[in-house]
Amino acid sequence: MIKVITYGTFDLFHEGHYNLLKRAKDLGDYLIVGVTSENYDKGRGKLNVHQSLVERIENIKQSGFADEIIVEEYMGQKIEDIKKYEADIFAIGSDWLGKFDYLNEYCEVVYLERTKGVSSTKLRNENRGILNIGCVGAGRIAKRMIRESKFVSGVNIDIVYGRNKAKIRKFAEENELEKYTTDFDEFLSKVDAVYIATPHTTHYDFAKRALESKKHVLCEKPITLKEDQTRELYEIADKNNVVLYEAIKTAYAPGFQRLVMITKSGVIGKVIDVDATFTKLENNKNLREYDLTQGGGSISELISYPLLAIFKLLGMDYEKITFYSRFDGETGIDLYTKALIQYEDAIASANVGLGVKKEGELIISGTHGYIYVPAPWWKTEYFEIRFENQNLNEKYFVKFDDDGLRYELVDFYHSIAEGALNISLSAEESAAISKVIEKFFDKADTIEI
Ligand code: CTP
Q1: Ligand 1: distance of its center to the CA of 112 in Å?
Q2: Cβ contacts of residue 291 below 8 Å, gap of 6+?
Q3: DSSP alpha helix (H) spans, 64-139
Q4: Given CA atoms 59, 18, 50, 254 in this order, what sign does their dihedral have?
Q5: Pocket test for ligand 1, best of 109, 119, 122, 128 (most atoms within 8 A of CB)
Q6: CA 118 to ligand 1 centroid distance, Å
Q7: Would the CB of 119 count as within 6 Å of ligand 1?
Q8: Which residue, of 2, 91, 155, 160, has the fewest CB within 10 Å?
Q9: Quick one: what percent of the chain has pLDDT higher than 70?
Q10: Beta bridge partner(s), residue 446
Q11: Domains and their CATH numbers in the chain
């Protein structure tokens, strides 16, 4: 009996998949099909898969060619499978020509002719259409978002809005955008969604105008500096049936989501303390970060990250928050702040700094053990669960590609294209973060050090 094995994502099962499976089956007597798991796809940067693993397996079953279906979960699994299932032939489409020659050591490798003109990527784009996102602002983060958007199929950033014509023209040229405009209404008329990457104090007005024009909004953090304003924006989004997302990249990162779920599963017992730090030593006082009139300072710039971890793990129902801050005499911004957040039965600290450097780690302490996430914890690529008995310790690694802005973009896109709920960061969580920032600027609970 000749056994053939083949692999793929098989998203939105199409004619190309059908032909491939038929050709693979014709090579032998028994066909094993390996279907990639969701985690594996995410890990290798394939972020936009439309169907669940169960749906994709079901489609392959329906084709009638597979004698056995297995799940591909990690790199290097193919060699193990070939040995385990004693496969004689490894078959794959010709788009992979040469890429799997290394498997010749274990079995015969056959590249089958690929069906022209059809692919899952093409179908995904046709099905859901392209989301045209316009960029508000032409600063550092906007540049990074445009670069990251190239990794997300289905989204297209092609226009930038800004007040300074020369600046946005240069930005458009440098980032290969087709259009730029200083007219916000004209800008809105040309897009389905906007990405707001301007100074904090301008977010509210831009977001409001965009949402009222029924445009989806992805807004840089902090969404606003006032709780009421943030709540109002979410209400406007709801009323206009559009999506509003706050761009705190960690919230959408696969590793962080895994970390939260693992902690919630109770593996370290009851969480008693969350200690999260994010500092970014920045000495150029000409930057927006040092400008109080533009909402500068460590808290507004950085506390969204630690608060995200604290609120996800301990909730938003805290009793008291106290800020211990060191202010800059010249600019008035907080150079360093330690915010202590007291809960009924737990405590948390969020440490942020623009003028002071500290280890950027996250430590979650529980009654059975603790979780240690080394710097930069906000990328959450690696973490350890540690116990008194070190033999029980566990290590986790979850890939985080480049800047990681692609994860929020994928989530945003799914939410618009498929009506998927935003479960990564809720309106309540965004409002709670704005509330803390507002409280800090009120100065009532701030102790100067
Ligand atoms: N395949 C094919 N002809 C096509 C598309 C895919 O022969 N037109 C083959 C691939 O070469 C592979 C298998 O089908 O052997 C599964 O491929 P997969 O990556 O799941 O499909 P694509 O349509 O190429 O998906 P994507 O666009 O997401 O890369």
Answers
A1: 11
A2: 331, 333
A3: 77-84, 120-128
A4: positive
A5: 119
A6: 8
A7: yes
A8: 2
A9: 99
A10: 323
A11: 3-112 (3.40.50.620), 131-248 (3.40.50.720), 251-448 (3.30.360.10)
